Amino acid sequence: MNDHIQYLSRVTKTLADKDDFHGTDCHSCKLGKWIDSSGREDVVAHAPHAEGLFERLVERHEYFHSVSNEVLAKHQVGDTVNCYRAMTEMHKVSGQLVSLLLDIDRKVKVAA
């Protein structure tokens, strides 16, 4: 979760011209690497009933990267209005991601 917060911080700093972050795709960050490697197996092995939550996490994670990259692209071309619209969506999806991660964590702990 800390990496996710740092990702958001880098986007925000870039918008304030205090960083030059270009974003990443959904497979390059730590969460994406976990999803692509052992994520599904980790979740299903400990909480088979959480597989649906994992699927939703994958979808929201992909969308988060799409929207955050849109934020950065709009900023780069000076499209302030659409940059901030996309940023609002990015923060909404970020909250959904955090919620899904916490839900999955709870399901795994209950099953343990």
Write structural notes for this entry.
With 112 residues, the chain is mostly helical. It has a single domain, classed as Four Helix Bundle (Hemerythrin (Met), subunit A) (Up-down Bundle). 79% of the residues lie in helices and 0% in strands. It has four helices and no strands. α1 (2-15) packs parallel to α3 (51-76). The model has no long low-confidence stretch (mean pLDDT 95).
Which fold name corresponds to the CATH topology?
Four Helix Bundle (Hemerythrin (Met), subunit A)
Largest sheet: none
Q: Strand percentage, roughly? A: under 5%
**H/I helix tally:** 4
CATH architecture: Up-down Bundle
Protein name: CZB domain-containing protein
Domain Chemoreceptor zinc-binding: 4-72
InterPro entries: Chemoreceptor_zinc-bind_dom (IPR025991)
Per-chain topology:
Blueprint: H1 2-15, H2 30-46, H3 51-76, H4 80-111
Helix pairs in contact: 1-3, 2-3, 3-4
Keywords:
single chain; 112 residues; mainly alpha; Four Helix Bundle (Hemerythrin (Met), subunit A); CZB domain-containing protein; Chemoreceptor_zinc-bind_dom
Task: Write a brief caption for the model.
The protein contains four helices and no strands.
